[in-house]
Amino acid sequence: MMSEFVKPSKSAVLGAANGVMFMTFFGALWASIGIVGSHQLGAPWPLVLSAIVTIILLSGAISLFVKSRSMNHAVTPKEKEDTKRINRKFGLIFGLEGVAIFLASVICNTLNHFEVFFPVMAMIVGIHFFPLATLFREKFYYGTGIVMCMLGIISLFLPINATFGNVSIIMMSTIIGFGSAVTLWVTGLRIWGTLLKQLKQYE
């Protein structure tokens, strides 16, 4: 992320748009895990709230994409090279995360303990935010990573099932799903809000 004292470049706006899009998409995926695990507890509000937040963040990502297209910023050779370098490193980090999640699913399934897969996945996702914090120079990602890791660890000590009223829910999936969704959505809002604040300083 760019410093608040430097006008964001077109590539920075595009990067922020992609970041918000990622947080929107994966936040919705985690929310779906929570909704399925909750077995319709509180329905339809979890689904409605998830849809509302997803639409808001999606509109934010699209607005940033549109904003980047209207920028007449001439990309310098250095900016092109920096963008390529960042994209390569991001691809590597994202790829390693995918491999780690795949291996975790295989191992959990092989050991007949697939119920711990989601907490382990949350920790993997959390860990991947630490190199991203350095890559994008965004300290907020450290917080995102720590929260995701803590959610994963705490979920391991929760009962698998619990009953609220007459509804039996998958406690572990519900907590890790909704907790991770909120964490990613807040991160997406942070990216969007920070970029808008930077752009507003130069209007």
From TrEMBL:
<feature type="transmembrane region" description="Helical">
    <location>
        <begin position="140"/>
        <end position="162"/>
    </location>
</feature>
<feature type="transmembrane region" description="Helical">
    <location>
        <begin position="168"/>
        <end position="192"/>
    </location>
</feature>
<feature type="transmembrane region" description="Helical">
    <location>
        <begin position="86"/>
        <end position="107"/>
    </location>
</feature>
<keyword id="KW-0472">Membrane</keyword>
<feature type="transmembrane region" description="Helical">
    <location>
        <begin position="12"/>
        <end position="33"/>
    </location>
</feature>
<keyword id="KW-1133">Transmembrane helix</keyword>
<dbReference type="Pfam" id="PF22765">
    <property type="entry name" value="DUF7010"/>
</dbReference>
<protein>
    <submittedName>
        <fullName>Uncharacterized protein</fullName>
    </submittedName>
</protein>
<feature type="transmembrane region" description="Helical">
    <location>
        <begin position="113"/>
        <end position="133"/>
    </location>
</feature>
<feature type="transmembrane region" description="Helical">
    <location>
        <begin position="45"/>
        <end position="66"/>
    </location>
</feature>
<dbReference type="InterPro" id="IPR053824">
    <property type="entry name" value="DUF7010"/>
</dbReference>
<keyword id="KW-0812">Transmembrane</keyword>
